[in-house]
Amino acid sequence: MTTIFDGYDEEYRALTSDISKKLSEVALYEDQKDKKKSSIVHIGDLLTQATQLIQQMELEVRSLDKSTRPELSKKVDQYKKSLASLSADHKKIRGKEEREGLFGDRDGVEASAEHRSRMAAVTTKMKGTTDKLTAARKEMSDTEEVALAISDELGRNREKIKATHEKVKGVNEMARRGGNIVGRMSARDKRQRIALAIAAGFIIIAILLLIYFGMFKKK
Which residues form the Vesicle transport v-SNARE N-terminal domain (predicted)? Predict the structure, then answer.
């Protein structure tokens, strides 16, 4: 899942858990009419907030890539069903209490005003959450751009390093060839010296032989 969707998901699950808990607590307020009425109205506000969260999740899912979208769409559909069940339970409880006179005309007006006030607060809270998530999305986008820029720079540096490596390799190859040439020249020089030494030896022997035979003839 995405970071933004995760935020919606976590908030929705906490919200529906709270709604379920409060629905089960309504029956405990039989002797506390005002508290029961306030609880029922508050649950309605929470259901509205949960509905808005689902709408936010749907918008977020539409902005995702096709590979991620199906799984999250399925999750949102499941949340819609669970929320519909909670809304039905709330409607049933409120309908029963209205028939028993818990919400009279005056109470209805007061409840409506209170509901509008709560809805305004919920809307403000949702707007704040949306603004934070939008800012988080922008920050993620900026971070991604920086990461791409760094990746491009690393790619260019990699090419430079590769080119330098090729140059060093070429220099090493030239040095190796130069060493081979020097080695061959040294070997040839050595052979020439040996040949000269042998030739000098033959010349010396020839001179000695000439001297020897010259002296022998005189005798």
Answer: 1-92
CA 21 to chain centre: 36
Q: What are phi and psi of 54, to 5 degrees?
A: -65, -40
| 122/11 Cα distance (integer angstroms) | 13
Model's pTM, two decimal places?
Answer: 0.48
Q: Which backbone phi and psi does 71 adopt, to 5 degrees?
A: -65, -45
Contact 78, 50 (CB under 8 A): no
- The answer to whether the beta carbons of residues 92 and 47 sit under 8 Å apart is no
Q: Residue 121's CB: how many other CB atoms inside 10 A?
A: 12
- Chain centroid to Cα 110, Å, comes to 50
Return d(Cα 158, Cα 60) in angstroms, integer: 37
Burial class (CB in 10 A: 0-12, 13-18, 19+), 53: buried
Separation CA 80–CA 69 (nearest Å):
16
pLDDT in tens, 38-96: 888 899 999 999 999 999 999 888 888 888 888 899 999 999 999 999 999 999 988 88
- In this structure, how many other beta carbons lie within 10 angstroms of the beta carbon of residue 58? 16
- Please state the φ and ψ torsions of residue 120, each to the nearest 5 degrees: -65, -40
Q: Which residue, chain included where needed, has tokens 């309908």?
A: 95
